[in-house]
Amino acid sequence: MALTTERVADPAPPGFPDWSHAARQAAQVVPDQAIDACWRALNHLSAAQLYLTDNARLARPLRPADVKETPRGHWGVCPPVNYMLAHLGPLTAWRPAGSELLVLHGAGHAGPSALAHAYLNGSLHLTGNGPGWSMPELRALITGFPHPERFGGEITPLIPGVRHTGGQLGPALAIAQGMALDAPHRLVVPLIGDGELETGATAAAWLARRALHGSGEHGAVLPVVLANGLKMGGPSLLAGMNQDDVRAYFTGLGYEPLIHDGADLPGFRQLLADALTRQRPLGEPARQPMIVLTMPKGHTGPERVADRQIAGTPAVHKTPLKSPRHNDVEFAALAAWLASYRPAELFTTQGRPTDLVRQALPGPTAEPGATRPSAPLASRRLQSWPDVSAVVRERAANGAFRLFSPDELASNRLAVTTDDALPSWATEILNEEICHGWLQGYTETGRDALLATYEAFAPVNTSLLVQHLKHRRLRYLTGQGGLPSVNYLITSLGWRNTYTHQNPGLVSSMLETEDGFVHVYTPADATRAAAVLAVMLAGHDRVNFLITDKHPGPAFPPDPFRDELTDGAAIWPHLSHHGRPHLVLASAGDIPARELTTAATLLRRSHPEIKIRYLHVNDLAVLGPAPHWPYAFDERTFTRLFGTDTPVLMAVPTHPAPVRALLAARGETSRFHVVGYREPSRPTTPEGLLEHCGLSAAALSARAALMIKEHSG
User: Fold this and answer.
1) Are 324 and 331 within 8 A, CB to CB?
2) What mean pLDDT is predicted for residues 119-142?
3) Parallel, antiparallel, or unpaired for β 486-491 and 518-521?
4) Alpha-carbon distance 50 to 318, whole Å?
5) Measuring CA to CA, which residue among 449, 435, 381 is closest to residue 406?
6) Which pTM value belongs to this model?
7) How far apart, in whole angstroms, are the C-alpha atoms of residue 416 and residue 425?
8) Which backbone phi and psi does 597 adopt, to 5 degrees?
9) What are phi and psi of 220, to 5 degrees?
């Protein structure tokens, strides 16, 4: 039964789509029987993908030969996801003119559901580029699952209509919020499993909505909690709460929960219309509607087989029947289970959804429209870039841009406030994961964003970034590239910070992925950092990390920077001798550049007979070999910079190990000495940390002299 709160909805702001009218219109045109038929079709195709090799319509009695030798995949989450997809289809088809409805899968295990939905709406093509509905297509859908070399068995952007890759549990609600920001025409419906509610990212995202101001500027988010009672291995925490507790929980978070068990289909349609009547832009402080669908996990599947209980147990999470091809009791249960959906009523002999099913479908899923800046960043000489803050402000003035930060904009010395207030395009919340989720949703829908954070706290998002790299890689490989880059500004560096704030681990993890989308920018001074940031914000299809000190430091001659930016590194003539050097000094990052340039000066004074070549690396990714790193130095450029047998002393702002690994992959295992962050055993001063790591000017100068002596000896 539904539990709603009676009240008269306030009028929506001008320009906000009337989603409730769309729901009423869909209800008049699409009968309840069509919703039910669509739900059964999705359930049948989901189960058939797990179990069948043929006989998808059950046009004849099921045979053991029709059943897969080893069923694989996840069933439990599919029925409630399918229930929501069946109800949202008509709403998508009858949405207001100029509006957009996006469904976001929080449950990565709902791969069979997403594939079934893509088949029904005609956007999935398995046997060629011909019609999406045919018996060969239907047979390929069920026989090929889990499609290990094409789609995989879980949620990925290889499946049409998918905009968030499963596998990283928790960020779906925050990503949905990021998608709705600055997009008043858009309604985003994240489907959130009750196990997902236990993650920190989801728990924080409910409250995070309060940080998103500007009610007339944003779209709407309608969260749907799939309260199915189980996680993978047992009951969810939400399952231990009664409906009054559930309602009190979400009410306390600032929402208006509408709870329904799914058994009454017309009642759920009314509840959905009620939720849309109350729907308001994301930034409004008033209570927002959300839906709790209390459908048991694996609903409509087998309840019990012989003496084994299935419903309500972890057995429904994957394949409830383990070996129906060889077990007569399980085979009979499978035949009854699939027959309960009456598939002959749902699919024609040509494999097409019947007219009744098609009434509830949204049509082929289109990718969300991309909104790019109204004007490009002005081009200018390096000397004219004032600072990073000015670049951010200029980019924001062009629109379609957001700056996110975990409560650290002022601490990171980003001057973006006016009269001590943040501009509308900047948002702070004390949560790294939420900031990333917002950034991911914003860029996924075609807008530029920047996340500014402390170096030590950025590693919290390592897993999110690795998962999003997979997502971006798959989109790119399937021709869905062209999205704005994911941009991180990493500052408040550990070199100047306290013991507890020293951890450059994020970029180490990113380099270890050997993913060509990754760029780790290490400019030598603040002016260079501003120019690099401008390039980052104007780019696409990259995952960029800019490491820059927030404190003033020395400025270096600008002439080599064009090559630093275009090639990834450049020789600095003012610190280099002509001809073949005895030693190559290479810096990456502003603090290493400060120390190593001082070391170079000391070395030239104390050893005037020594010839050195000094160069600066602006992007650590260029050090790795092709093809893992598509923007890497070619062999000719690498040799021109580093020579072939000359010893090289390199100072980096990161852990040295991933840089050594990049060089080792090129076969450089002995002549490079890489100096970087090394964990101290106890708190120390910034000067003490440099000494501990061998990164002070004095330590670098001494190391350089020793390397020359060892090489010449």
Assistant:
1) yes
2) 88
3) unpaired
4) 9
5) 435
6) 0.94
7) 10
8) -65, -40
9) -120, 155
Q: CA-to-CA distance for 151 and 327, rounded, in angstroms?
A: 30
By C-alpha distance, which of 32, 44, 118, 125 is closest to 78?
A: 44
DSSP 483-525: PBPEEEEEES-GGGS-GGG---HHHHHHHHTT-TTEEEE--SS
| Residue 210, both tokens | 């309060």
Please give the span between the terminal C-alpha atoms of the chain, in angstroms, as a whole number: 86
Residue among 169, 245, 82 at smallest CA distance from 463: 169
For residue 549, CA distances in Å to 106, 389, 455, 553, 696 come to 37, 13, 10, 8, 16
How buried is 335 (Cβ within 10 angstroms: 0-12 exposed, 13-18 middle, 19+ buried)? middle
Amino acid sitting at position 561 = F
**pLDDT given for residue 131 in this prediction:** 65
Tell how strand 672-675 and strand 612-617 pair up: unpaired
* Nearest alpha-carbon partner for 293 in 81, 108, 31: 81
**Structure tokens of 676?**
């970087």
> Could you tell me how many helices (H) and strands (E) the chain has, helices first?
22, 19
Q: How confident is the model at residue 10 (pLDDT cuts 50, 70, 90)?
A: low
Amino acid identity of residue 656, one-letter, is: P
Does the CA dihedral 78-81-84-85 come out positive or negative?
negative
**What value does the mean pLDDT take over residues 580-584?**
96
Q: Which DSSP category does 22 fall into?
A: H
Mean pLDDT lowest among 108-117, 214-223, 642-651: 214-223
**258 phi, psi to nearest 5 deg:** -115, 115
Do residues 53 and 68 touch, judged by C-beta distance below 8 A?
Answer: yes
For residue 58, what are the CA distances in angstroms to 118, 329, 341, 376? Answer: 21, 19, 10, 58
Largest CA distance in the chain: 91
Write out the two tokens for 168.
Answer: 């990283």
Where would I find the H helices in 127-286? 135-144, 172-180, 200-208, 243-252, 265-277
Q: DSSP code of 418?
A: B
Residue indicated by tokens 């954070």? 453
Strand ranges inside 312-455, DSSP E = 401-405, 426-428, 448-454
Amino acid letter, 566: T
Structure tokens at 261: 């068990």
Mean pLDDT confidence for 479-487: 93
Q: How far apart are CA 302 and CA 322, in angstroms?
A: 12
Query: Of 500, 649, 635, nearest to 587 (Cα)?
Result: 649
Closest CA to 446 of 540, 548, 329, 362: 540
* pLDDT value of position 151: 87
Please give the structure tokens belonging to residue 221.
């988010």
DSSP letter assigned to residue 313: S
Convert the pLDDT of each residue in 379-402 to its tens digit.
Answer: 566 666 678 998 999 999 999 999
The token duo for 499 is: 């013991």
Q: Looking at the DSSP assignment, which residues form a beta bridge with residue 67?
A: 52
Band (pLDDT 50/70/90 cuts) for residue 16 is confident
What tokens appear for 403 in the block? 């700056």
Could you tell me if 171 and 440 are in contact, meaning their C-beta atoms sit under 8 angstroms apart?
A: yes
**Measured between alpha carbons, how far is 200 from 457 in angstroms, rounded to an integer?**
15
Say what angle helices 135-144 and 111-120 make with each other, to 10 degrees: 170
* Percent above pLDDT 70 for the chain: 94
> What is the C-alpha separation between 264 and 643, in angstroms, rounded?
75
Query: Can you give the three-state secondary structure of 567-631, one letter per residue?
Result: HCEEECHHHCCCCCCCEEEEECCHHHHHHHHHHHHHHHHHCCCCCEEEEEECEHHHHCCCCCCCC
Q: What's the CA gap between 329 and 305, in Å, rounded?
A: 7
Residue range 289-326, pLDDT digits in tens:
999 999 999 999 999 999 899 999 999 999 999 999 99
Alpha-carbon gap, residue 359 to 363, rounded angstroms: 10
